[in-house]
Structure formats: C-alpha cells, structure tokens
Amino acid sequence: MAGSLESLVVGKVIGDVVNMFTPAAEFTVHYGSRQVANGRMIPPSAAVDKPKVQIHGHRLSSNLYTLVMVDPDAPSPSEPALREWLHWIVVDIPEGCDATQGREVVPYMGPQPPTGIHRYIFTLFNQKAAAMSGTLPPETRSNFSTRQFAAGNGLGPPVALVYFNSQKERTNRKR
Of 156, 163, 127, which is closest to residue 21 (Cα–Cα)? Predict the structure, then answer.
C-alpha cells in the first residue's frame, strides 16, 4: 500500500484534494472492463455511465462507507478556478457491496474535461455514524471541497483512494 500512497503524492492528489492518510480499506472501480488505477488514462467516452464501485470486505459487517468523486483540475489543470468539481457522492454503502447499495446524494456526472489532462478522484470514507440520512447535496458542483465535506459530516480521513486521468477526445472532422 505504500506504493499506492507514493503515486498519490506524485500525482498531487494528496495535497490538492486530501491530506496524507493511512489506507484502511480496499475498493475497486471499473468502467466496463477497464479498472481504474492511479494515473491510468480513461477517455471520457468510456466513463459516460457510472462505474461499478465494489468495496471489499464482509457483507455481514456493519461498516458503512461514503464515496466522493471529484475533478480538482476544473476548468483547466493550469488554472483550476473551479477546484474541486463534484462528480458524484454516494453514502451508506455497506462493506462488501457495490455503490448501488448506497444512497446517491449527488447523481453521477461523467468526465467532460474541456482542456488538458484532468484527474478524476474517487475517495472512500468509513462512516462513523450508522447512516448519513441528513446528508444534503451541495448547492453547486463547482468549488466543492472533499476535506470540508468530510469534516462537516464527521467522516475523518479517507480510508482508500484511487484516481484516473482523462482528456478531451479528438473529434474526427471530414472536409
């Protein structure tokens, strides 16, 4: 797991979105057959539909998780004036299940990077409360803060995180 934290530091995910943390859970994110791995390039067309997010563990556990997906590079990596752009929030995901078993607070929005290479970050938090029934969606998707959301909902530090890169796809123009 130390290697995975190193890639998060090098990719500036730790720093731009979250503080240093100790991984304490495992989860996988798939867009069809493509598994998200730190720094992997996934085109926007492959991430239009919400991914399958599987939290590893025992189904009989009482642990619940919150998933947050953001783009810290909006609208452009060189001038991220809208950092962080919120793409998805799911709460109350049972351990050993996928995100469809949780409650979607903010509907999924696929990547739409206008310029440059953007990072799309999935952060997993272990909920301290049994259920996050009072969690309300933010007023806007722009200028969201994963850190403030976690603090405001008593989530503590992340327990797992993975990210992918994406950039605007070229369109074929016929002349």
Answer: 156
Average of pLDDT values for 16-24?
A: 96
Q: Taking the model in full, what pTM does it have? A: 0.93
Q: Quick check: 18 and 123 in contact, CB under 8 A?
A: yes
**Burial of residue 143 (number of CB atoms within 10 Å: 0-12, 13-18, 19+):** middle
Q: What's the CA gap between 1 and 87, in Å, rounded?
A: 26
Maximal CA-CA distance, the chain = 60
Sign (positive/negative) of CA torsion 28, 161, 35, 1?
A: negative
* pLDDT, tens only, 115-164: 999 999 999 999 987 778 778 899 999 999 999 999 999 999 999 999 99
In sequence order, the β-bridge partners of residue 64 are 94
Alpha-carbon gap, residue 159 to 67, rounded angstroms: 10
Task: Give the C-alpha separation, 134 to 153, whole Å.
Answer: 9
The token pair at 174 is 């016929």
Task: Using CB atoms within 10 Å of the CB of residue 27, give its burial: 0 to 12 exposed, 13 to 18 middle, 19+ buried.
Answer: buried
